[in-house]
């Protein structure tokens, strides 16, 4: 895996074959890719393979039948696991292969930006396993945890279908194609690609929309962390300790033991467990309780400071090792939870579609099932935020082109599995406790008695909540209260603890599992906060660079600091608004997050559609793979935006709520709260309503321009090729997590060169 300039200079491009240049690498090196014959041999069907895939298909069919058709008064949670895993396996093995073969068409003989532009900071060829961890951690923020938990008020079936089917046909398609096309363009952001592919009008609208939407997304991600850690000394200590652990791992992997991924993973896991166990001990001491029992506003300011520092540090020091560490934990916890579900087999009593799914007036969030289910469950099925990561940090770290399928499509499938596990955890707990935890304090009064009165007034079948149920559950998990712990994270933690204690440890370990889950979720989200801030900084630097070219130099530290500070100030302002929101920040801001997130997905898919159309006639028959999810996303996001802007129902429409509180303020009516509360609601709904209008207008402009560009490219038989000039690769790495037999044989030829490069990196 040599990337020296001397070797690169010996590479040359020969004739063009099937649209790809015949690249010739350094003749002194082993082959940099498998031959087409080797690929064909390894993908050949055999009887055992056929039997295996038939079995997977049959198991998946049975699971879906049990969930969607046979369902009775209860449904066993085990069918969620089987339906998800079987669908993911089929989608990855077959659908993503179609995309790879007919749309992306990777060429491992071609060097990636990480190899061509290697600078030790942003462009760094990274082991695919570590990069998978970094990418997954960066994309898997609050969305797959919060969205499914909130959407559980509508029942389990609509969310399950959208999470599993949506990711195969939409979310993973977006992540994979954006990652690949960004990599082919030097790691350009989605905004930069939009400007190149769609021209000045479409590109400008896309850039402005991406920057504003990123501010909302990162703010809501941070808000979930604040709500999870607020007044929880155990959680604050454990999460704070992950920062020095990640820094240690970065130094260890970079200088002390380069390449020892397994070794540093074990060390990190042990330290992480020590942080969780130590958090329980610290929280039980007088000094620990005083030091780490922090108000939500204090935690919010701490996260703002963390976001700035993390985004300006070198990617190898904190971002990559922290993401790998958190991914190691995340995937391990989700797999462990899935295993516990198979062992415990909890019975789900939540209806397939609840009364709130039918009338759209639930206490957790308001709005009809269509379109609000599809914007509430964002990241688990389709997320525009992922397009920013897939066109921000990850394409600058890819070693080989064929790895984009494993990292882009495969990473999104894993996030979808997280979302399904979050949904199962949320619906496995008592419905009364679920609504007590997720209804805002304005409805519950923030007390056990108030929550009981409110939840029982909903008239839900089989729900009879008592104060003892709430206080007893809070005591079991080692928290003073679980009432109005909105944001999804505490609910997921309770559900996970409820399932895990039945499989391992019993009631005595309930508090451990709860705080283990809180730390696991906070890790999830903080990695998205720092990665999102870094990507936003890249976009802003490029935008300002149109007027001041020096800003486009990502190694120019003043530009890095200024742009990072601007973006952190933007999402920090929204975060503080959410923390101080009288109506419950998550309950009012999350719909805006979901809509903005899906609008960004529509923008990303529109850009990809234009790129594919420009590639020529051979790609047009497969354009529907991108166009279909784009059309669906456009419909749900525009419809949801119209509801939030024009609905006369205050619980749904931002402006209707704004006018309601303005009238109360003008008339001196104090039934909605004192003057400070009323003014805060007026301010927040005005911000939300204004942003809703801006977001949907910009997204519509981008989509219209993209359709025009696509039609023009179809008529002309293609368009301008904006990819970077191809350079022959002088390094090798397998495409998937587990190398095939042919890949292992080629890896052995490269081992001496790999060892030499690692020693050189450690020396420098």
- In CATH, the homologous superfamily goes by the name Amino acid/polyamine transporter I
Number of strands: 4
Helix content: over 70%
Q: What is the makeup of the main sheet?
A: 2 strands, antiparallel
Tally of distinct domains: 1
Task: Assign the CATH topology.
Answer: Amino acid/polyamine transporter I
Q: Which assembly state applies to the chains in this document? A: single chain
Global morphology: globular
Q: Number of DSSP helices?
A: 30
Structural category: mainly alpha
CATH class: Mainly Alpha
Q: In the CATH hierarchy, what is the architecture at level 2?
A: Up-down Bundle
Give start-end ranges of low-pLDDT stretches: 1-18
Membrane topology: Multi-pass membrane protein
Subcellular location: Cell membrane
Keywords: Cell membrane, Membrane, Transmembrane, Transmembrane helix, Transport
Pfam families: CstA (PF02554)
Describe the structure.
It is a single chain. This protein is mainly alpha-helical. It has one domain: Amino acid/polyamine transporter I, CATH 1.20.1740. Helix 9 runs antiparallel to helix 13. The radius of gyration is 25 Å and the shape is globular. It starts with a helix and ends with a helix.
């Amino acid at each position: 895996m040599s990337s020296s300039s001397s070797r690169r200079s010996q590479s040359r491009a020969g004739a063009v074959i099937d649209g790809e240049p015949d690249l010739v690498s350094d003749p002194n090196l082993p082959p940099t890719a498998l031959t087409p014959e080797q690929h064909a041999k390894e993908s050949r069907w055999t009887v055992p393979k056929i039997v295996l895939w038939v079995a997977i298909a049959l198991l998946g069919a049975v699971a879906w039948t049990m969930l969607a058709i046979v369902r009775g008064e209860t449904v066993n949670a085990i069918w969620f696991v089987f339906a998800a895993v079987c669908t993911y396996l089929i989608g990855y093995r077959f659908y993503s292969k179609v995309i790879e073969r007919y749309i992306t068409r990777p060429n491992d003989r071609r060097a990636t930006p990480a190899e061509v532009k290697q600078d030790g900071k942003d462009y760094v060829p990274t082991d695919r396993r570590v990069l998978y961890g970094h990418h997954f951690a960066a994309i898997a923020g609050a969305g797959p945890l919060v969205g499914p938990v909130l959407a559980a008020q509508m029942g389990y079936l609509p969310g399950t279908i959208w999470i599993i089917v949506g990711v195969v046909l939409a979310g993973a398609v977006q992540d994979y194609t954006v990652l690949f096309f960004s990599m082919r363009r030097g790691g350009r952001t989605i905004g930069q690609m939009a400007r190149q592919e769609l021209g000045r009008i479409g590109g400008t609208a896309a850039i402005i929309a991406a920057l504003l939407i990123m501010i909302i997304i990162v703010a809501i991600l941070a808000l979930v962390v604040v709500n999870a850690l607020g007044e929880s000394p155990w959680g604050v200590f454990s999460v704070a300790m992950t920062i020095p652990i990640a820094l240690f791992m970065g130094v260890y992997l970079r200088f002390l033991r380069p390449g020892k991924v397994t070794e540093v993973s074990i060390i990190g896991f042990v330290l992480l467990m020590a942080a969780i166990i130590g958090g329980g001990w610290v929280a039980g001491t007088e000094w620990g309780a005083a030091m780490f029992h922090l108000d939500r506003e204090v935690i919010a300011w701490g996260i703002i400071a963390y976001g700035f520092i993390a985004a300006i540090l070198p990617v190898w020091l904190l971002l990559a090792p922290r993401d790998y560490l958190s991914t190691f934990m995340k995937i391990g916890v989700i797999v462990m939870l899935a295993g516990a579900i198979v062992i415990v087999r909890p019975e789900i009593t939540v209806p397939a579609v609840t009364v709130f799914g039918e009338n759209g007036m639930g206490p957790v969030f308001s709005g009809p099932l269509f379109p609000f289910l599809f914007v509430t469950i964002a990241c688990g099925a389709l997320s525009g935020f992922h397009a920013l990561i897939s066109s921000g940090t990850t394409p600058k770290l890819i070693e080989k082109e064929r790895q984009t399928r494993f990292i882009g499509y495969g990473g999104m499938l894993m996030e979808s599995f997280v979302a399904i596990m979050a949904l199962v955890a949320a619906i496995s707990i008592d419905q009364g406790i679920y609504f007590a935890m997720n209804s805002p304090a304005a409805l519950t009064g923030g007390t056990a008695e108030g929550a009981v009165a409110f939840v029982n007034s909903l008239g839900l079948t089989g729900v009879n909540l008592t104060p003892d149920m709430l206080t007893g559950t809070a005591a079991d998990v080692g928290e003073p209260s679980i009432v109005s712990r909105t944001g999804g994270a505490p609910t997921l933690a309770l559900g996970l603890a409820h399932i895990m204690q039945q499989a391992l440890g019993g009631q005595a370990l309930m508090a451990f599992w709860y705080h283990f889950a809180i730390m696991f979720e906070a890790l999830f989200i903080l990695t998205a906060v720092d990665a999102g801030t870094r990507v936003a900084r890249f976009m802003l630097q490029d935008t300002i660079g149109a007027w001041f070219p020096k800003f486009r130099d990502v190694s120019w530290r003043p530009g890095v600091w200024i742009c990072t500070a601007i973006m952190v100030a933007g999402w920090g302002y929204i975060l503080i608004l959410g923390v101080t929101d009288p109506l419950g920040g998550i309950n009012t801001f999350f719909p805006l997050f979901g809509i903005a997130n899906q609008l960004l997905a529509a923008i990303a898919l529109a850009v990809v559609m234009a790129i594919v159309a420009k590639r020529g006639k051979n790609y047009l028959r497969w354009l529907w793979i991108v166009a279909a999810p784009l059309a669906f996303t456009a419909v749900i996001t525009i419809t949801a935006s119209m509801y939030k802007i024009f609905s006369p129902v205050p619980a749904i429409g931002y402006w209707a709520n704004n006018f309601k509180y303005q009238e109360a303020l003008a008339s001196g009516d104090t039934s909605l709260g004192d003057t400070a509360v009323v003014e805060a609601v007026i301010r927040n709904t005005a911000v939300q309503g204004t942003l809703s209008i801006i977001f949907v207008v910009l997204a519509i402009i981008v989509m219209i321009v993209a359709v025009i560009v696509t039609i023009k490219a179809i008529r002309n038989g293609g368009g301008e090729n904006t990819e970077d000039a191809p350079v022959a690769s002088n390094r090798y790495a397998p495409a998937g997590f587990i190398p095939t037999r042919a890949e292992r044989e080629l890896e052995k030829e490269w081992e001496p060169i790999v060892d030499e490069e690692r020693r050189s990196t450690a020396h420098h």
